[in-house]
Design brief:
InterPro entries: GH (IPR017853). The protein is α+β, with helices and mostly antiparallel strands. It is built from twelve helices and 38 strands.
């Protein structure tokens, strides 16, 4: 079953595509996913020539015995070794899997067994060999993974199990050693050890998945990554409050003599987990979460103090002989943040600062493997940070983002890293980022998709808005003599307001489209019009294929992001602001902006494209944020007031076309409030680039 693509854009249009067996398993099973997913079949979109599924050498586990413990994976110097029937595998291409679908937040249980089945097969088809999860998933994850691997013994999907800190109490208390924090984390570690071996039964609590875990996935358990990205201030406070914390001399892990209190606490928790795991007569490599913000290297050129405030070093947590699987260094590391990647001379000298940084991490950890367990480049219209070599945190098409991510995976293999796990498998609508979070109503963010928020675009799997209000379009104009438009239809979905405009005879060379979200506010007229100024405008050059989005000054969301001088803003007519995003605050470095309102022209081959002309037909899609909506699902328009977000309810969006001094009022586009979104799943364009890289780094 396939989902037909709409013309121009809206969903990616495949010039040729194949719906593979892994997609059909969802449709043919008769199973239904969560209500958020109306049509869960997966598409491989935008590929002209679909290669056959991988048929390389087998990855069937061939565990070894050490000290009476069974190991499917272990460490050897700087190598992470997965023991397979075809011999040792020393580089693992992986993916990070979250636990939400559109309409849900992480505390919900929303991924169905049918989705897990399809996703596991899709991951394997894309050359992914390990799926990393951050927490205990519902029993269906483990059941479906075991079933999938038993049905595909030579191409199994291995698991890197994570266990996150429980809540953020350690931040509030500034102390990891707090009994509440430690006890909660130890219980979660024990539960995770029981979950992977199919021996857990627990009740559901707020923020904690419950159920009965009966599937044993330890034959395919490649390792553990425990903890969370630690807050530098809270960990620094932990070190200060626990300076006299005892060294760790556990049976399985110990702390080095120069370990900090935070590192000793982590060593203790790794020792706890090893004890729970060893009871099952198995051993797997165990690491703790680290990220570039708290890496063990010093970065004096970093402009933000908090990004180099704390150093955590995996070298200071050491396995004993009783834990033969060993440990490794795990990093979340991206090519655009922190800023030391742009300013550190030693990293610039080699040409690619990011690759140089990874090489420096590997050199520091000379006695253990180093694995990058989060990396990637998002496909989104909005960006949140500028990076070296144009690998910014957003403002990339799907094809471009996947190409960059694939290149980074190849680079990791070339410099001797132990693996690379791309963040992430599926786009997650609940996610926010620092430069748009103040523009949105927080408790309903998961109900709509914002292409200006880069954090919602990291997935290899797109979650496309399917149109909660239905497929039917609303006709605004249908008049042969109409000008500039003779026929105009509109449709709203969870991502965009869509317009299809049949231009009138002798089409104009340029066109302004006004969007009035709050008709009750007073404003100044549009040029050549006696009516009030609209709230947002798309100014299009139909001949040169250029365009710019503007927002009325009173509704400019950048008022919510602090004091931004006019000198940092782009040009705009009086009373307007270009739609821009702040991508770097002025702290030791100049303020930086992204002109997110620079309207990309194109068709479905560019996922950022917002408009296209084909003869007399103009197709447009308008992100809700560009019309000042803070929550389109509840018709809430964001109105900055004294630096804070307030909202006013919209009755709909009135649309006006203006060209050559003529204004054409099209009436109002309306839609119903929604409390549940509808989405379809699609492998993103360019996925074959990642697949080729994943197969190349494993010689498959």
């Amino acid at each position: 079953m396939s989902v037909p693509a709409r013309p121009r854009f809206g969903r990616a249009r495949a010039t040729a595509f194949t719906v593979l067996a892994f997609a059909l398993c969802l449709t043919l099973s008769g199973a239904t996913s969560s209500p958020a997913l109306r049509s869960p079949a997966l598409l491989i979109a935008g590929m002209r020539d679909i290669p056959s599924p991988p048929t390389g050498t087998p990855w069937r586990p061939a565990p070894i015995d050490a000290n009476g413990l069974n190991m499917v994976a272990s460490t050897d110097g700087q190598q992470f070794v997965l023991h397979t029937a075809a011999g040792p595998r020393t580089f693992l291409p992986g993916v990070d899997l979250g636990n939400t679908t559109p309409g849900h937040v992480p505390a919900d249980v929303s991924i169905s067994a049918a989705q897990y089945r399809a996703w596991f097969a899709a991951m394997t088809w894309l050359g992914i060999r390990v799926v990393r999860i951050y927490d205990i998933h519902p029993p269906a994850f483990y059941q479906q993974l075991a079933a999938y691997n038993q049905a595909n013994p030579d191409r199994p999907l291995y698991v890197m199990q994570g266990v996150s800190l429980v809540g953020d109490a350690y931040i509030k208390k500034g102390n990891l050693y707090d009994a509440q924090v430690t006890d909660a984390f130890r219980r979660e570690l024990k539960d995770a050890a029981q979950a992977v071996s199919g021996q857990l039964n627990r009740t559901t609590l707020p923020g904690r998945v419950g159920g009965e875990w009966t599937a044993d996935i330890t034959p395919w358990l490649a390792g553990w990554i425990i903890g969370s990205e630690l807050d530098p201030a809270a960990a620094t406070a932990t070190d200060r409050k626990n300076a006299d914390a005892k060294a760790v001399t556990g049976k399985y892990f110990r702390s080095a003599s120069d370990a900090t209190p935070t590192e000793r606490w982590l060593a203790n928790r790794m020792n706890d987990l090893a004890g729970y795991v060893a009871a099952e007569k198995v051993s797997q490599p165990i690491a703790f979460v680290n990220w570039a913000t708290t890496d063990p290297l010093r970065h004096p050129e970093e402009p933000l103090r908090q990004e180099d405030q704390l150093q955590l070093d995996a070298n200071h947590v050491r396995p004993t002989d009783e834990w033969p699987a060993g440990t490794f260094a795990s990093y979340h590391a991206y090519p655009y943040y922190p800023d030391f990647l742009r300013y550190e001379p030693a990293l610039q000298a080699q040409g690619d600062p990011y690759v140089s940084y990874l090489a420096a991490l590997r050199k520091h950890h000379a006695g253990m493997p180093t694995m990058i367990t989060e990396f990637g480049v998002p496909s989104s219209i909005g960006s949140a940070h500028n990076g070296p070599l144009e690998r910014d945190q957003g403002d990339h098409s799907e094809v471009e983002a996947t190409r960059m991510t694939a290149g980074l995976l190849r680079d990791m293999r070339a410099i001797g890293m132990a693996g690379g796990f791309v963040f992430e498998w599926a786009d997650e609508w609940f996610r926010y980022t620092w430069n748009t979070v103040t523009h949105q109503v927080p408790n309903r963010r998961q109900l709509w998709h914002d292409p200006l928020t880069n954090e919602q675009g990291f997935g290899l799997l797109a979650m496309d808005a399917a149109g909660v209000t239905g497929e039917d379009s609303q006709t605004l104009v249908d008049a042969d003599g109409g000008w500039p438009g003779r026929r105009v239809t509109a449709r709203a979905d969870e991502s965009y307001l869509h317009l299809s405009i049949r231009l009138g005879d002798s089409p104009p060379g340029s066109l302004m489209i006004g969007f009035d979200s709050l008709a009750g506010l007073t404003g100044t007229p549009m040029a050549g019009s006696a009516d009030r100024r609209p709230d947002a405008i798309f100014a299009l050059n139909l001949v040169g294929h250029t365009g710019q989005a503007y927002v009325r000054k009173q509704l400019d969301p950048l008022q919510l992001d602090g004091d931004i001088p006019d000198s940092a803003r782009g040009p705009a007519p009086d009373g307007w602001r270009p739609y821009e995003l702040l991508v770097n605050r002025a702290q030791k470095v100049p303020i930086e902006m992204q002109n997110a309102g620079l309207l990309h022209y194109g068709d479905s081959t560019d996922s950022r494209a917002l408009w296209h002309v084909d003869g007399d037909d103009l197709t447009i899609r308008v992100p809700w944020a560009m019309m000042a909506f803070a929550d389109p699902s509840a018709h809430a328009v964001g109105v900055p007031k004294d630096g804070k977000l307030t909202t006013q309810r919209s009755t709909g969006v009135s649309v006006t076309l203006s060209a050559s001094g003529t204004d054409q009022s099209l009436g109002q586009v309306t839609w119903d409030d929604w409390n549940w979104p509808v989405a379809t799943e699609r492998i993103k364009q360019g996925a074959e680039q990642f697949r080729d890289a994943a197969l190349a780094v494993t010689n498959d």
